[in-house]
Amino acid sequence: MAENILYGLTHIFTWQNMLFIFLGIFVGLFVGGLPGLSVTLAVALMIPFTFGLPPESAILLLLGVYCAGTYAGSVGAVLLRTPGTPASAATAVDGFALSQKGEAGKALNVSLIASVTGGLISGILLLFAAPQIAKFALNFGPPEYFALALFGLTIIASVSGKSFNKGLVMASLGVFIASIGLDPLAGSQRLTFGSSALLSGVNIIPALIGLFAIAEVFRQVEKGMKKISTPSKVDNEKIGWRFLRPYKRVIFKSSLIGSFIGSIPGTGGAIASFISYNEAKRTSKNPEQYGKGSLEGVAASEASNNGTTGATLIPMMTLGIPGDVVTAVLLSSLLIQGLQPGPELFEQHGGMVYTVMIGFIVVNICMYIVAKLSIRGFKRITLVPSSILFPIILVFCLVGSFAYDNSMTAVWIAVAFGFIGYILPKFGYPVVPMLIAIILGPLAETSLRQSLIMSEGSLVIFTERPVAVVFLLLAVLSVFVALYNHRKTRLSVH
């Protein structure tokens, strides 16, 4: 191992590999910050540029895009309430509220430091604990996935705002929308109303763009604001790692949650960020600040969704099983290079593997440097006149929706969700519970039905699996805590 680590360090710090790392970071920051242009799309677009490159250089380039793109989703979430990726949707809840208070700089700095910390922790776990974590993740079957999804769905109780009932209504609407398309097990059509365009269901990307980005454009146009941020100046405080001391515990915990969830194939940053956000709110000394501009909430979300980045590589490299959609693309890039992921990869190409794992840590450090220098420029976006900025945002939203699957259906879905996100909050119906249900609904349904098939219809299967029992108990605890906080809030108001 020591020999492989030395080999990795020697090969990473060549000018060619460092150039590819920074190139990947710039591409990731640019694409990840644009609504609808997902990290998956950015990584896929860069694959043709890796043809002919050495395997180490090719993977380091793509890792730069992956890590920077995941972080960059928070820039639009904070400044414009337009999360660049689904993983940054939780960040938009508090990040944009901070931007409206003229504290965009604080939010962006907290987001960056939390993102880098999450990435570094997941990178260290990737380097030293990959095989052990991958073996544990393999124990996850349908019962464990259902319990995890159910635990994630309990977040709805915490993000329902003043009315739990209205949050439940929106969550039910989200489950209904998630059911549109082909039945995941039987293959029959559901709720398509005879439309072939709905056979693939309602994808999260155009839904996310509509609920947050397009809806926010409608709101800002209605207000007739001259600038996105109400204050005439943006904060120019110098914020470093010391500023994060009050949030170090939540960042560390959220990074571990993200790393754990990311190591489970088929999950991802969106699930991890909402679970961490809910857990941070549950244990916070100031839970009432969440949703109104909590730096703690921003830190929890970003540490977690970037904590998944290194963890998703664990099952990919050790077992050949992609942890999420992005790592599925990365897996194909390894195959293009003539490398077969799995245990033999460590035996036959140990030096290259450790170059990639150490390189992941270096990518996060370089990303911090580049993004830190860019924050001052990012903040200036809030001072652009709305007459210029809103049309640009709207165009990017529509183009990003179309680019997802090259169809106008995605564009109309984004516009429809834009109206939902604009109109329903006026009547006190929050959109976040619906988004959570759309994300977690398919996983919960599929894993529940698979579990019942395994047990021949018996629910006892969920009590026979220790990991599933733990998640179910956490789900019950999460609901009770959220309901208790709702009750306490109502009593204090009266």
TrEMBL record:
Keyword annotations from UniProtKB, A to Z: Membrane, Transmembrane, Transmembrane helix
Protein's organism: Alteribacillus persepolensis
Regions that span the bilayer: 20-47, 59-80, 110-133, 145-161, 168-186, 198-218, 319-339, 351-371, 383-403, 409-424, 468-485
Domain DUF112, chain residue ranges per copy: 18-435
Source superkingdom: Bacteria
Record lineage: Bacteria, Bacillati, Bacillota, Bacilli, Bacillales
Stated name of the protein: Putative tricarboxylic transport membrane protein
Entries under Pfam families matching the protein: TctA
